[in-house]
Amino acid sequence: MACCSLTAMADEAYQGKVIDTMNAGGYTYVQVQQGDNTFWAAGPQVAVSKGDQVTLAGQSWMKNFTSNTLNRTFDKILFVGKIDKQ
Q: In terms of pTM, does the model score above 0.90?
């Protein structure tokens, strides 16, 4: 499952459908469905909606990330430099 690798390569592309999204602290958090997998990603704030198709670029996985602004801990989250709507 490529979505859950903690050693994702910087040039590996992730694409999928937004199934949940929220903005907090200047970041956009998106829950993305890619094939049979779902995962959370966060990047610079951008306008996206549920159902949008996105491409995530410039990424790094982090385990057990706590967002103080959301008062939530993510088991795994993909931090990205850019969230592009397709």
A: no
Task: Look up residue 63 and give its amino acid.
Answer: K
Coil/strand/helix, residue 2:
helix
Confidence of residue 16 (pLDDT cuts 50, 70, 90): very high
Strands (E), 1-86: 14-24, 27-34, 37-44, 53-67, 72-85
- Cα–Cα distance measured from residue 29 to residue 21, given in angstroms and rounded to the nearest whole number: 5
Q: Which residues contact 3 (CB under 8 A, 6 or more apart)?
A: 14, 34, 37, 38, 39, 78
Q: For the CA atoms of 3, 78, 10, 50, what is the dihedral angle to 10 degrees?
A: 80
Q: What is the dihedral of CA 39, 37, 5, 12, to 10 degrees?
A: -90
**What is the chain's mean pLDDT, rounded?**
89
